């Protein structure tokens, strides 16, 4: 991946306007501090999500980073860009969190796929699960079109899941170098280590990610299909669920399709296993579905609501992130739980 964001490099000096707002912020002007950090909030939040694999953890990490930056403004002398300094603060906070918490997991990390539908599966509450990331705001700001494309690529579900298999220093090195465009020497300064150590961590990280994500980026497939065709496929998927139409659903799937549902540990691979699960559970045992189209991790997604009857209230159930290939659905990741809906700006219930 190339550089995602087109902000100033670590070696750039702050602008005259930033100098003025820095002086005001150091004097206790909240509005000036807000002006300084507001253009950077979304990219910093996305960075924290990549590091931590959780929108909620990213919220906490960014809040802590901005609070620490506010309290430490006196130590920022303006020899580097404010953006670079904030990345130092945010990365160190994320590294502290990575060192004290279990890595985020997906069902595929826990065991082999199931060949038949598991009807008595219970959520695993002792696992730190990877969570979805809302597309809202991705691509905003001054970045070039190419940079905005790469920004979405860098939050794709497969890539973020692969990052969770890296040690904290490897994760940080890969993101800061390959995604954000910092140099090895700049990263070494950020992480209080040597450029040699950074390069070593970077090489190891690239090897592991390449093993976990062997195919091409989802963004390339989406661009080839075009927005209209992607929306058609996603709408057909959601409609098939609502109508309980197994044939229509199966027609959308690849032969090697997978379906997982964190926090449930069981997952399915292959058309036969996925079809058995779909027919046994969502298409027959779930009384009524409603949906809203959305976007997660730079990919098409469907928010599903479950009701006891077609005429009753439907409650938030899952955010389903779809991976497409050759005009079919190659992977369905259903993040179960109403807690995922608020970050997407979605209601908790619909008619």
UniProtKB/TrEMBL annotation:
Locate the transmembrane regions by residue number: none
Superkingdom in the source lineage: Bacteria
Domain RNA polymerase sigma factor 70 region 4 type per the UniProt entry, residue ranges: 158-207
SUPFAM superfamilies linked: NTF2-like, Sigma2 domain of RNA polymerase sigma factors, Sigma3 and sigma4 domains of RNA polymerase sigma factors
Biological process terms in GO annotation: DNA-templated transcription initiation
- What is annotated about its quaternary structure and interactions? Interacts transiently with the RNA polymerase catalytic core formed by RpoA, RpoB, RpoC and RpoZ (2 alpha, 1 beta, 1 beta' and 1 omega subunit) to form the RNA polymerase holoenzyme that can initiate transcription.
* Similarity comment text for this entry: Belongs to the sigma-70 factor family. ECF subfamily.
What this protein is called in its record is RNA polymerase sigma factor
